[in-house]
Design brief:
Residues 224-342 form the Fe2OG dioxygenase domain. It comes from Arthrobotrys oligospora (strain ATCC 24927 / CBS 115.81 / DSM 1491) (Nematode-trapping fungus). By secondary structure, the chain is of the alpha+beta class. The protein has helices at residues 5-11, 15-28, 84-90, 106-113, 117-120, 159-183, 193-196, 222-229, 291-295, 366-373, and strands spanning 71-72, 75-77, 93-97, 132-136, 141-146, 202-208, 243-247, 253-258, 264-267, 273-275, 282-287, 321-325, 333-340, 347-355, 358-365. The two termini are 23 Å apart. Mean pLDDT is 77; it is low at 1-66 and 224-232.
């Protein structure tokens, strides 16, 4: 099977171009690099317009500019869930209101991720990257993953933690599955098993904090470390700041909610930048790497010849490229992300390829796509 590296690079926007466009928009608004935009305080989010964020309707297709110069994302009421497929075609992400979720368990995320190091180290799973505690000190973040297929690897003697975690996860997965069902209202796009099983879905508690950063990471050589400091991941004093590189999520859909400060930005297929601050009463819905396979042109594959460009149409939902950069002066940021993923062995793509003189149908399973993504150099972006 051909390598994905060159195909991915041609299918997706160049990462440097994205940085330039993001920085250009920030400079237009008088900012120096990226800064967090605070959410409307005290806002009672309902079906009316919130601040300058557009409340999307079936016929609305306009966005407004935020204080930072970035475009803002639409808000969709959960009772209008049938509008979400068309909205995710037009926008890289949406806010969802009246979703019925329990309060986001930020207190549990904070409790767990500020435990003493010796306790957090006992919550690691050396055999899994999506279970238990991990950190990336070079970028000032640490996280804990809940994988429902395994026993919860959480803080000891805390029954409320497990109860609230699993409740928020289960209800969030239900919402994402409901959204998936809407894509099949006109033609079968997403496999039925996605609606019926939690598959390989997980949930993440994530903390960004300057307290986490190692100013001299042990696993990076000096040249690599200097590159980090000279990028937008360093503040005016040349110090590393909490961040995550621009990336897309390896899933079908992501549900995310966060505390202030924001620092979250997303891109659409034209390279336009959207601000995505936390707004009371909402959760953010983003598309993952599998959506292009489910919504590409009928009979076309994103993996086929000519880099699959012809498979991507106006009705194709592209993965949401996003990044987080938190100014050091803003303190720490917590977020909770729920990832809707299929079973590892689910077939996500079929295409006809030549094998010698014969044409054969080749199938791609989710696990293979995940393996290929690990080998992509630079940013972990698929279709962005």
């Amino acid at each position: 099977m051909p390598s994905m590296k060159s195909r991915i690079k041609k299918l997706f926007l160049n990462g440097n171009d994205k940085d330039q466009k993001l920085n250009a928009k920030s400079k237009e608004s008088g900012e120096q690099g990226l800064t967090a935009r605070t959410c409307p305080r005290g806002a009672d989010v309902n079906t009316s317009t919130v601040g300058t964020v557009t409340n999307i309707t079936a016929t609305s297709s306009t966005s407004t500019l935020s204080e930072t110069g970035a475009l803002e994302l639409p808000i969709v009421d959960y009772k209008d869930v049938s509008q979400i497929p068309d909205t995710l075609i037009k926008y890289p992400a949406i806010y969802l209101i009246n979703h019925g979720l329990p309060p986001a368990p930020f207190s549990h995320a904070r409790t767990l991720l500020t435990l003493p190091k010796k306790i957090k180290d006992t919550l690691r799973d050396p055999k899994s990257t999506v279970r238990g505690y991990n950190n990336a000190k070079a970028s000032g973040r640490e996280w804990w993953d809940y994988n429902p297929a395994e026993k919860l690897l959480g803080p000891p003697d805390n029954e409320e933690f497990g109860k609230d975690t699993t409740e928020f996860f289960n209800q969030s997965i239900g919402i994402l599955q409901k959204i998936c069902q809407q894509f099949n209202s006109q033609r079968q796009l997403i496999p039925q098993e996605v609606f019926e099983e939690e598959g390989f879905s997980t949930m993440r508690y994530l903390r960004y904090s300057p307290d986490v950063i190692d100013q001299q990471p042990q696993n990076l050589d000096q040249s690599t470390y200097n590159t980090v400091l000279n990028s937008h991941r360093a503040d005016d004093n040349g110090e590393a700041i909490p961040h995550i590189e621009a990336h897309t999520d390896l899933d079908i859909l992501t549900l995310i909610t966060a505390t202030e400060p924001s620092g979250l930005y997303v891109w659409n297929r034209r390279g336009e930048v959207f601000s995505a601050p936390p707004i009371d009463g909402t959760v953010l819905i983003m598309a993952g790497d599998l959506m292009p396979f489910f919504t590409s042109k009928p009979g076309k594959s994103p993996l086929e010849q000519h880099e699959g460009v012809e498979a991507i149409g106006e009705d194709t939902v592209l993965p949401t490229a996003h990044t987080v950069v938190v100014p050091r002066s803003a303190g720490e940021r917590y977020s909770i992300a729920v990832f809707l993923r299929p079973r590892r062995d689910m077939i996500v793509d079929k295409r006809v390829v030549k094998r010698g003189e014969k044409e054969v149908e080749e199938e791609t399973a989710f696990w293979w796509l995940a393996t290929e993504k690990l080998h992509v150099e630079g940013r972990k972006c698929f279709l962005a």
